[in-house]
Each structure stands twice: as structure tokens, then as C-alpha cells.
Design brief:
With 440 residues, the protein is α/β, with parallel strands linked by helices. Helices cover 26% and strands 26% of the residues. The chain has helices spanning 25-33, 59-69, 106-114, 139-149, 159-163, 168-177, 209-218, 273-283, 318-329, 366-369, 384-392, 409-420; strands at 11-12, 19-20, 37-38, 49-50, 82-85, 97-101, 119-122, 153-156, 182-189, 197-205, 232-240, 257-269, 290-295, 305-317, 335-337, 343-344, 347-348, 354-364, 376-381, 396-399, 426-429. The two termini are 58 Å apart.
Length: 440
């Protein structure tokens, strides 16, 4: 085969169709799945079309990619996510290496600097509580100062990583489900405070309704999915009485007038409101048009949000679930609590506890899991009395320590980020990052 064409990282022989890929066939499957390649898989006559990611990425390019992979609007309101530290030369400096860690400690920062990292993605934000000074008086402050001195940017996705579809919480529940067939959904579906759309309502004379509707549509209103000029109209009677300074189109000053009018409603994106307003005033026949704007409430997501619950088609034992937990989080030991009736001489009888559903949440999940109807709760940490309340209510609890439920996702994200950026970035996961608590 002599038809390979470097420098494209995917080489295809135009004669026999043979494909060679750095990273092997699994990289090919992943790239097809993420839409970075397009070809007809059932037609060998169609060649690969490969769109290469820019080989040079500056900080804003990387940040844009990270936001696209885990949109920051999915984060909790109390969280501090996004770009937290930005070097002064970020507008021009190339980002070659991204360093992933769950917690940015001083040891992890030294590791990242030694690896010549340009950007640290720290799952937990190293800046959370307000900082009044940057001195050497605390580890948090020393980390920020040292990162700035070494021109290392810091980005944190935190609860956006948790909430996003195929993020941390989906990774957990899929691992807990294993080979079992299960129905999975978020425990707390993400609901935007407001959507990006508004409803514009205008009251217009019947004979002018079409003209105003067309103008509003041309300005950007009335688009729903694949349809334009979408509106709803209802007939009614409008009343008005002009003062001495008025110039009514219909009727006379100082007289209460009644006119057949149409109440017309159209959706409108926030970015088009000003243009739609101009269109109404330009085409409406009245001296002072009557119209109003209502912000539309956000629609809860069916796939994003905090926590997950899986309902199994066939029950498994708690012993099997605990084995899956250990395998997923790569732990030798976890803490388990069960209702009293499953204790024998103080030891939990895991084989006797049947699991038809499991609820999970990364990190400290007690507020998300509280009151959830599931046989087992799996999370990083819960308070003592919260565990007692759960077991008294018939639930089993599996605790793995906070960051142990999060850290493993970084290996998954490393692969995704490398695939998303088409080799433009080197991505490394910290080797010294670990949960501070150890069971000895």
C-alpha cells in the first residue's frame, strides 16, 4: 500500500481501503463515536474524511473545549467552576500539556510543574472560599502563588463534571450496574433557572396581524425546532382612550374606543429581543403598541443532574454490588452499613440482602440521597446520624471516602480529551493525587 498521506494521523490506502491508526482500532471506534470521522461504514468505496483539530491550541481554545465537554451552567450555584487562574500571556501562549488531578495539593502542583504542564484541570476547585490575600500563610494561598509564578493555568469543572451526561455520576452508576440490565436516571435533574427563550405577546388589529407576525419572524421570533413563523393568535376586543396629546389611528381623542384585536404570541431567543422590539414598533399601526415579554422557565433535563439511580431488571446481592464498587473505585476495602436484621453477630450478611435498586452520588452525597427510594446508597461520605437514619429506614449504605468516588473518572476523561483534541494536547493524570484518608 503506497497511498498513505501523512501528516494526517489516520492513513487510508485508496486502493485496498486498509487503515492504520496510531492507538489501534479502539481509537478508531472512539473517534467515529465522537463524530470526528465521517464515512459510510457499509460502503468500502467511500474514503475516510478526517477533520483534523488545530495542531496548536492556546488557552482559550482548551477552555472552550472543556466547557463544551462539561457546560458550566450544569454546575451547582454554590460552586466555583471554570478558569480560576489565568497567566498574563494566555492570549498567545500555546497549551501543550494538560495535567489532571482530583485535588490540587502542593505535592500535585510540584508534580505538574515538573511535568512542564501548561494547564492543570483540578476536579475540586482550589479557590472556593474567598481569599483576602496571597501570602505563604496557608497551603491554598501558596498553591495559587506558585501556579502564577510558573505561569500554570488552573481550571475546575467540579459539579459540572458530576451533572453532565456521561460525566462522573453516570460513570459511577454504569460501573455499579455492570452487566445487569437497568433503568438509569438522575436523582436531581438539572433545571435551568430560566431558559434562553422568551414569549413575546403583542396585541394588534386583525388586519395588521400578518404584517406584524412576518416582521417579528424576520427579526428572529417564532422559530421552534425545524419550523419558522410559529405563532398562536386569539381574537378579542381591545379598549383605549387617548388623551389630548394622542394621535389615535382609529377613533377620536378623549373617547373610549373598542376595536377587534388579536392577541399574538411567539417565542423569541434572548439575543433577538431588541430586534423583535424594533420590528413591532416599525410595523404596528398603533401609536403606542401594547406588547409584553415573559421569560420562560427552564425545562428539567432527562439526562443531566446530580446523583443517579439504577433500577435492575433482576436483583443482585449486596455482596455482588460491593464487589462492583471495589472494582470500579479500585479499592480493597469499603465501609458498609445494613439494617439490623441483616446483622449476624455484628457482621453484615451481604449475601442475604437483595438489591433491586441503587442510588449513587459522587463525593458527599447525603443531601442528594436523603429520602430516595432505593435499596442501597453508594457515595463517598455521609454523617454518622445520616447513616443510622438510612439503615433504620431499610437501606444499606456503602461509603468509599470522598475523592475515591471521583478520581477514577479522570482516566476516562483523559482518553476523551485526547480524542477530542486530536493529539494537539498531551494529557497526564497525577500519580501522587490520592484521598487523604486511608484504612489501615
Amino acid at each position: 500500500c503506497a497511498s498513505f498521506r501523512p501528516p494526517c494521523p489516520i492513513y487510508s490506502c485508496s486502493i485496498c481501503g486498509h487503515v492504520t491508526l496510531p492507538g489501534g482500532p479502539f481509537m478508531f471506534v472512539r473517534r467515529v463515536a465522537t463524530g470526528l470521522l465521517s464515512r459510510s461504514l457499509c460502503s468500502p468505496s467511500v474514503r475516510f474524511q478526517h477533520t483534523r483539530h488545530p495542531s496548536r491550541m492556546i488557552l482559550k481554545d482548551v477552555v472552550s473545549t472543556l466547557k463544551d465537554m462539561a457546560p458550566l451552567h450544569l454546575a451547582e450555584k454554590w460552586d466555583n467552576v471554570g478558569l480560576l487562574v489565568e497567566p498574563s500571556d494566555s492570549a498567545t501562549r500555546e497549551v501543550k500539556k494538560v495535567f489532571l488531578t482530583n485535588d490540587l495539593t502542593e505535592a500535585v502542583l510540584d508534580e505538574a510543574i515538573a511535568a512542564h504542564s501548561d494547564l492543570i484541570l483540578s476536579y475540586h476547585p482550589p479557590i472556593f472560599a474567598p481569599i483576602k490575600s496571597l501570602t505563604n500563610s496557608s497551603a491554598k494561598q501558596r498553591i495559587i502563588v506558585k501556579a502564577i509564578e510558573n505561569r500554570v493555568a488552573i481550571y475546575s469543572p467540579h459539579t459540572a463534571f458530576d451533572s453532565v451526561e456521561e460525566g462522573v455520576n453516570d460513570w459511577i452508576i454504569q460501573g455499579l450496574s455492570g452487566p445487569s440490565k437497568a433503568t438509569i436516571k438522575p436523582l436531581q435533574p438539572h433545571t435551568p433557572a430560566l431558559s434562553a427563550s422568551h414569549k413575546v405577546t403583542v396585541f394588534v388589529p386583525e388586519d395588521a396581524a400578518d404584517k406584524v407576525r412576518d416582521a417579528m419572524a424576520a427579526a428572529g421570533a417564532g422559530i421552534i425546532g425545524n419550523y419558522s413563523l410559529c405563532s398562536f393568535s386569539s381574537a378579542g376586543t381591545g379598549t383605549f382612550k387617548g388623551n389630548d396629546k394622542s394621535n389615535p389611528v382609529a377613533g377620536s381623542k378623549g373617547v373610549l374606543e373598542r376595536a377587534p384585536e388579536v392577541r399574538m404570541e411567539m417565542v423569541c431567543p434572548s439575543s433577538k429581543l431588541a430586534e423583535v422590539s424594533s420590528a413591532i414598533h416599525r410595523t404596528h399601526p398603533y401609536e403606542t403598541p401594547a406588547w409584553e415579554v415573559h421569560a420562560l422557565a427552564g425545562v428539567p433535563s432527562s439526562s443531566a443532574g446530580q446523583g443517579r439511580i439504577a433500577k435492575f431488571d433482576d436483583k443482585i446481592t449486596l455482596a455482588e454490588l460491593v464487589a462492583r464498587v471495589k472494582s470500579l473505585f479500585q479499592l480493597d476495602r469499603v465501609r458498609v452499613a445494613v439494617p439490623d436484621k441483616y446483622l449476624l453477630d455484628g457482621r453484615p450478611q451481604l449475601d442475604q440482602f437483595n438489591v433491586g435498586s441503587v442510588a449513587s452520588c459522587a463525593g458527599a452525597g447525603s443531601t442528594v440521597l436523603q429520602g430516595v427510594s432505593a435499596d442501597v446508597y453508594v457515595t463517598g461520605e455521609m454523617r454518622h446520624h445520616e447513616v443510622l437514619e438510612a439503615t433504620a429506614s431499610g437501606h444499606a449504605v456503602v461509603l468509599c471516602d470522598h475523592s475515591n468516588t471521583e478520581r477514577g473518572f479522570l482516566r476516562v476523561f483523559k482518553t476523551r480529551l485526547e480524542g477530542r483534541t486530536e493529539g494537539a494536547l498531551q494529557v497526564e493524570v497525577s500519580k501522587c493525587d490520592q484521598d487523604p484518608l486511608m484504612i489501615i
